[in-house]
Amino acid sequence: MGNLQPKPEMVLKIMRNSKAKIDRSGANNGNWKGGVSNSKNQITHWWVGEQLPKPKCCEMCERTDVRLTLSNVDHQYSRNLDDWWYLCYHCHQFFDGYGFGQVITDAL
Predict the structure, then answer these.
(1) What is the dihedral of CA 90, 99, 61, 71, to 10 degrees?
(2) d(CA 17, CA 86)
(3) Which of 3, 20, 28, 44 is the most buried (most CB within 10 A)?
(4) 66-78 burial by CB neighbour count: b if 16+ within 10 A, else e?
(5) 68 forms bridges with which residues in the sheet?
(6) Which tens digits make up the pLDDT trace of 4-32?
(7) pTM surpassing 0.90?
C-alpha cells in the first residue's frame, strides 16, 4: 500500500478551516442570540407529536392529500393536548402566519 501521508498543503488547509470554524462559534457567530433559544417550544412540539395521534386529514379543511403539521390553538405552547391540532400548511399559515389566528381562536 505504501506510506499514505497527507500533502503538507492539505494539512495547512484543514488547520485553517478548523480555526475558522472555531472563530465563528458561540458568541462570535453572526446568528448568536446570547444563548437564548425557543428550544422549549421545540421540545413541547416534539412531546405533543409523540402523544397526539396524527389524523388522516387536516382538522380545519379536512383535506387528506396534504402533509400535516402541529399547530397550537392558544399560542401558549402548553402540554395540554386539547390546545393542539394537526393542520395542513395552508391552514397553518392562515391560522398563524397571516393574523387571522385570533379571529379563529375567538370563534372556537
Answers:
(1) 80
(2) 43
(3) 44
(4) eebbbbbbeeebe
(5) 88
(6) 776 777 766 766 666 555 566 667 777 66
(7) no
